[in-house]
Design a protein that fits this description.
The complex is a heterodimer of chains A (459) and B (450). Chain A is an alpha/beta fold. Chain A is 39% helix and 15% strand. Chain A has a 6-stranded mixed beta sheet, sandwiched between helices. A 6-stranded mixed beta sheet of chain A has the order 9-8-10-7-11-12, with helices on both faces. The longest helix of chain A is centred in the N-terminal third of the chain and has 24 residues. The two termini of chain A are 44 Å apart. In chain B, β9 and β10 form a beta hairpin. The chains are: A alpha/beta (459), B alpha/beta (450). β9 of chain A pairs parallel with β4 of chain B, so a sheet runs across the interface.
């Protein structure tokens, strides 16, 4: 057996076995098929689900048939295009669906995709049969996600949030757009065949009713479908904000040392006080406060004088043998490790420590609970905050370890439309910079100066 | 704001940072225990006899207890008429007492609860006390499943002690018919304000309504992942390692010669068992991977299956721990489940990190898990419903496979020693756990090593 250096990149390929390091989510690709009338949140769900799956490491892509239609049609005139008796319209729409399915096949069979989300109304049994046959031919598992909602307020809000700003309505005023969209919905209503408990009992699906009040889940086949169901059952659309910040500046921070479990500097304590004031001013309804189990986040939370919850899962990345070292010391004692880290910062695991990839896995329950909750302030650490931020802002594994999360700065995230609004609030207490950019030279034989080029200044 | 408010101290056992004011532990605002729910929850089982209610209740209670949610099981065997009403209200009073006195978080009320009237009684009681209610209804119309059910668990009940099997089956089916007449299932319309999950035909379909909080969400996820397909779970440690021989804990060493022999023996054993579609799981540590390699089959590595992190005590012998950190060594003996190694983990932390492994084990069928002593103790405690006090002392010797097969309401265990000698790594709790104990007392139960 070749010596397994725990330090090496976490994906170890041995020639001696068929061992796979990552947990196998599914052994054949999965096609998720959205079902529902317009303005039922299908695209919202598709995008969110895609973001979640990619974050946990399952390569996923969404295919929005509406996009294909816009590319094909170029100009959207009005709802008449969607009339069920519009032969020309039907032809184009069918072509677009097939074109999208073709791209799905390409993604899942040739581009290493594991999950494809097919975002369209798919409201007729006939259309769904076509898709099922397509999946069978290609060896994909199919999982339907249907959103059913009759609440006029929810539908109206949906239209305001995401339809009015759509390219389809770029030249319309609000009333015109809303009127047209309502007529569009009507075009689908008569031919809508919801998933049926009897007729569709052999299919695998989740039916989401009234934005999550009720769910019907049928024939979950495997691990990934089970995780998808769990995720969909935990998300909600109640307006709220998530506040992310790091602990106040710590003693090890100012000395340029990573990890450890030190306390706050006097500036760090000042920050904690400012954070307390900030929270007060924001007047947040039922704010939950979470920290890690490390001294510096707890000290920060203590200054807020409110109850808080400690999560071990929010602890900073474990730097193993490099704990409490300065970058200069890591370069001196472990130059190979230091270079390997720069080569693939996301997957690199510290000897006897963790990688960003490990962090994401351990943070998944935190994300799940954040989805369940409403207003939350998470006081955590640099690497942890990068992982959480990457989830909310849909950042790739390459970008994630280099996201800027400076000390003494609160990021306020507010879900809006299909994404997340970010407000960055620096609380006006100076702190050391702990952000180290990727240096140009990541070669293992690079000279010391080049390795240390991007190390931020410290005592 | 005084500077004292920013002073923290780390609790010696759990290694949790808490405020330190005037040399006493201040009122803690920080909770280090996960907030599963903010009020006690009563889980109410609903369904005709032989629908798996007791199976589900016991399994659910076992799972919740394992993840740290205090959950006693209140089983109520159905009785007819007035007696029924009295028994039910007795059970409810017990639940009330349990929540107040023992600070339980979840109680499972296992009875048929098949009428709207009965459920109304429970709802009023809960509302009065400020408890949340979550219904779990099991609906089944497959006669084969029902018969299987009856054969497996009903016929061995005291009610049928002196009966012939065929007669007993018939009698039980008649019992079910009695309930059917008054059975009112949870209704999508009329019960739309209740929180519940309806399980159809052992899990092919679920209807979930109004999940209120975290614990209900976890319960739903769990119930949706369990199944009743017969299968076996094989638990084993890695083969004997070099550090095992030296009496050192943790680390990432390779197998000793005997450890290699065990790996081969394990391969032969697995072959001989002719297990259908066996999945093999290991940790990311060298010794479990080396063991799996000998099997010559694909396997999956889980970082979550890594051995407990002994932090500052990694790769030490117990003698060295006693020499360098006698207080830590004593604290560990005082509460081995909750004790966290400095810069390391506790058994309690491990249960938390193993939860996704358990969830996936529930989803899977035949699995062989090659892991480590502390990890195996945690997994075993889940399957055999062992308490937090027993868990850290469960015997999981090297070179021994534990074959677990679910049967009736529990788990059959077969212990198979694969006939390759190995060092003993089990350290019993010594009689003296005082921090001022003598070295000999501390090291009394340390197993022999090189």
């Amino acid at each position: 057996l070749p010596p397994l250096t725990p330090a090496a990149l976490s994906v170890t390929c041995t020639c001696f076995s068929e061992a796979r390091v990552k947990l196998c989510m599914t052994n054949c690709p999965t096609l998720i098929v959205m079902v529902g009338l317009p303005a039922r949140g299908k695209t919202y769900i598709s995008k969110k689900l895609t973001r979640y799956l990619n974050w946990i490491g399952v390569p996923t892509k969404e295919f929005n048939v509406g996009q294909y239609r816009r590319e094909c049609l170029k100009i959207y005139k009005n709802f008449e295009f969607f009339r069920p008796d519009n032969e020309e319209g039907l032809k184009i729409r069918r072509q677009c669906a097939l074109s999208a399915l073709n791209d799905v096949r390409q993604y899942l069979c040739m581009e290493g995709g594991q999950v494809a989300v097919f975002d369209a109304t798919n409201t007729t049994r006939e259309r769904r049969d076509t898709i099922t046959r397509f999946a069978e031919q290609n060896g994909f598992k199919v999982f339907f996600v249907e959103s059913v909602c009759e609440d006029p307020d929810v539908i109206a809000e949906n239209i305001v949030q995401v339809k009015l700003g759509s390219p389809d309505y770029i030249d319309c005023n609000t009333e015109e757009a809303v009127a047209d969209f309502m007529k569009r919905i009507k075009c689908y209503e008569n031919s809508y065949q919801p998933l049926d408990e009897g007729l569709d009992r052999e299919l695998s699906y989740i039916k989401i009713m009234d934005v999550g009040r009720r769910y019907l889940v049928n024939r979950v086949l495997d691990h990934i479908q089970s995780r998808i169901v769990y995720y969909l059952m935990n998300i909600h659309i109640t307006p709220r904000s998530i506040y992310l910040c790091r602990h106040g500046e710590s003693d090890l921070n100012v000395r340029g040392r990573i990890g450890g479990d030190s306390g706050l500097t006097s500036r760090g304590k000042e920050y904690a006080k400012s954070l307390g004031h900030f929270i007060q001013e924001q007047n947040i309804k039922d704010l939950k406060v979470w920290t890690s189990q490390m001294k510096r986040t707890i000290q920060t939370a203590e200054a807020l004088a409110v109850p808080y919850e400690q999560w071990k899962a929010l602890n900073e990345i474990d730097a193993g043998v490099c704990e409490e070292m300065m970058y200069e010391e890591i370069q001196e004692h472990f130059p190979l490790e230091f270079a390997l880290r720069d080569q693939d910062k996301y997957r690199y695991r510290y000897p006897k420590g963790e990688s960003y990839e490990d962090l994401v896995q351990r943070l998944e329950p935190v994300i799940m609970e954040l989805e369940r909750q409403e207003n939350v302030l998470v006081i955590c650490h640099q690497a942890v905050m990068r992982c959480l931020l990457a989830y909310f802002l849909d950042k790739s594994a390459e970008e994630l370890p280099y996201l800027k999360c400076p000390l003494h700065t609160v990021l306020k995230l507010t879900p809006v439309a299909y994404g997340c609004k970010v407000e960055s609030i620096f609380l006006n207490v100076e702190a050391v910079n702990t952000h180290r950019d990727k240096p140009e030279n990541v070669d293992i034989s690079r000279p010391t100066e080049e390795a240390l080029l991007t190390v931020p200044a410290h005592q | 704001m005084s500077s004292e408010q920013n002073e923290l101290t780390q609790t010696p056992l759990l290694k949790i940072w808490v405020p330190w004011v005037h040399s006493t532990l201040s009122r803690r605002r920080g909770s280090s225990v996960p907030q599963f729910t903010n009020s006690p929850t009563v889980i109410v089982m609903v369904g005709l006899p032989a629908r798996g209610k007791t199976y589900i209740s016991k399994k659910l209670a076992r799972y919740l207890n394992w993840i740290g949610v205090n959950t006693p099981n209140m089983t109520l065997f159905p009785l007819i008429g007035v007696l029924f009403r009295n028994c039910a209200s007795n059970a409810l009073t017990d639940i009330g007492a349990y929540f107040t006195k023992e600070q339980g978080q979840v109680a499972v009320f296992d009875a048929t609860n098949t009428t709207r009237e009965r459920r109304g009684l429970i709802l009023s009681f809960a509302k009065e006390k400020g408890y949340k209610v979550f219904f779990v209804e099991s609906v089944c119309d497959d006669p084969d499943i029902i018969e299987q059910n009856i054969m497996q668990v009903k016929l061995s009940s005291p009610d049928y002690e002196n009966c012939d099997k065929e007669e007993a089956l018939e009698d039980f089916l008649k019992r079910i018919e009695c309930y059917k007449m008054t059975y009112v299932p949870l209704d999508e319309e009329k019960d739309r304000h209740l929180s519940y999950i309806k399980i159809f035909n052992v899990g092919s379909r679920y209807l979930v309504n109004r999940v209120q909080d975290h614990i209900q969400s976890r319960i739903v996820y769990y119930l949706m992942n369990i199944h009743v397909t017969p299968r076996s779970i094989y638990l084993s440690r890695h083969g004997e390692s070099d550090l095992n021989l030296l009496g050192r804990i943790g680390g990432d060493s390779g197998l000793s010669t005997r450890g290699q022999m065990y790996a081969s023996a394990l391969a032969a054993f697995v072959q001989s068992q002719s297990i259908r579609d066996l999945k093999v799981w290991t940790s990311h540590m060298k010794r479990t991977i080396q063991t799996a390699e000998a099997l010559g089959v694909p396997y999956e590595q889980w970082k979550a299956l890594n051995e407990i992190d002994a932090g500052m005590c990694e790769e030490m012998t117990y003698e060295e721990i006693q020499g360098h950190h006698p207080e830590e060594f004593a604290l560990r003996d005082q509460d081995k489940y909750r004790y966290r190694y400095p810069k390391g983990e506790s058994y309690e932390d491990m249960v938390h990190r193993l939860e996704p492994v358990i969830m996936e084990l529930e989803r899977q069928e035949n699995v062989l898990v090659i892991c480590h002593q502390a990890v195996m103790r945690c997994l075993l405690a889940y399957f055999l419903d062992k308490s937090a006090d027993e868990l850290p002392y469960l015997r999981c010797p090297l070179h021994t496979v534990l074959k677990l097969t679910p049967v009736a309401y529990g788990c059959k265990v077969e212990s198979i020693f694969l006939n390759v000698q190995a060092v003993n790594t089990h350290r019993e709790k010594p009689p003296n756990v005082d921090i001022n104990r003598k070295t000999e007392d501390a090291l009394q139960t340390v197993p022999e090593h090189v």
